[in-house]
Amino acid sequence: MNEVKVAQDFMRRQLVTLSPHTKVLDGVARLLRDNISGAPVVDDQGQYAGVFSEKSCMRAMTGPMAAALDLGISAPKVREFMKRDLITLSRDDDVFQSIDHILSKRISGAPVVDERGNFLGIFSEKTAMRVLVAAIYDQVPGTNVGSYMNLDRNRIIGENDCLHDVAEKFEQTPYRRLPILLGEKLAGQVSRRDVLRAQHRIAVEVADRVRRGGVSDSVKESAREREVGEFADTAALTLGPNADILQIAQLFLNSPYRRVPIVSGGKLVGQISRRDLLEAAADLLRPDPERHRASPLYLSPLADSLPPSMR
Q1: Within a 10 A sphere around the Cβ of 211, how many other Cβ atoms?
Q2: What CA–CA distance (Å, rounded) separates 169 from 289?
Q3: Closest CA to 129 of 215, 42, 245, 19
Q4: Where is the CBS domain positioned along the sequence (predicted)?
Q5: What mean pLDDT is predicted for residues 244-251?
Q6: CA 20 → CA 55, 64, 161, distances in Å?
Q7: Could you give the maximum distance between any two Cα atoms of the chain, in Å?
Q8: I need a surface site. Which of 11, 146, 220, 273 has the fewest CB within 10 A?
């Protein structure tokens, strides 16, 4: 019988944190500089106060983007900031090897294409969560990427779409990346971070214009400095240090979150991301060549909370 890991066994303790009083542009710059998609917010007494996520950042950028329009600062088209050199997967790739691949490349997902380069779907950390839950409950020995990729075509955007339109799509959906197609062929991809980086550049330009003076009061109001605490997600789900690996997997599977703060006595003691969970579950996700079925785990009685697709 496998030993069940709990949050304190693999949570990250050395974290980038922000104060509620950190200026928004400084907070966004910190996330971009450290190449992270969010940071816990901790007050002066060390109490956990929420999460400043990429979506929080995009909400915070609404004012500066409105000011940019008033100032005539043009927003770039997708073709100007999309990524063209992408890591891709095939639908026939082994799902466990593909999870290892995205972990080793430190990416949160990859487009799935056929032999002609036609776009088929996305295999992401969240779809990998489904593999984890299936492996635990159904003792799935292995399958291919095509069985787990996300097929939603509403996430597709065009290279002539505007930054503002793409930012709105990200705000309205749980997706972290949007593919760009030419016909049916994958031409590139835009992530939330790509959009946020472009927005931050524009917001800095707006702030500079406001400092130089000669702008309207409405522009000043749209561009005024705001604090991280105004936009932090204070309702973000948290877990305690003894939450087991399946509880954490189910949280990720049933929510849009990419990280869960680990809180004890109101204080932040660590954090677990989807990547951390997948790495901790690597032994479970990689089939043992000496056996054909995954060993069942003794876990919390959470079967009733499984989504219908996993029952």
Answers
A1: 9
A2: 43
A3: 245
A4: 11-71, 82-139, 232-290
A5: 88
A6: 16, 19, 34
A7: 73
A8: 220
Give dist(CA 162, CA 53) in Å, integer. 22
* Arithmetic mean of pLDDT, 146-172: 91
Strands 185-191 and 109-113, sheet pairing: unpaired
- In the numeric block, which tokens belong to residue 76? 């770039």
Distance in angstroms (rounded) separating the CA atoms of residues 167 and 163: 6
Q: For residue 49, what are the contacts with CB-CB under 8 A and spacing of at least 6?
A: 20, 41, 42, 43, 229, 232, 234
- Could you read off the pLDDT of 173-188 as tens digits, one per residue? 888 899 999 999 999 9
Q: What are the phi and psi torsion angles at 70 (to 5°)? A: -65, -30
Element spanning 171, H or E: helix 163-172
Name the strand (E) or helix (H) holding 217: helix 217-223
Question: pLDDT-based confidence at 253, cuts 50/70/90?
Answer: confident
90-133 pLDDT per residue, tens: 999 988 888 888 888 888 889 999 999 999 999 988 888 777 77
Going along the chain from its start, the domains and CATH numbers come out as 78-195 (3.10.580.10)
- The half-sphere exposure of 284 on its side-chain side, counting CA atoms within 13 A, is 30
DSSP state of 155: G
Residue 292 pLDDT > 80? no
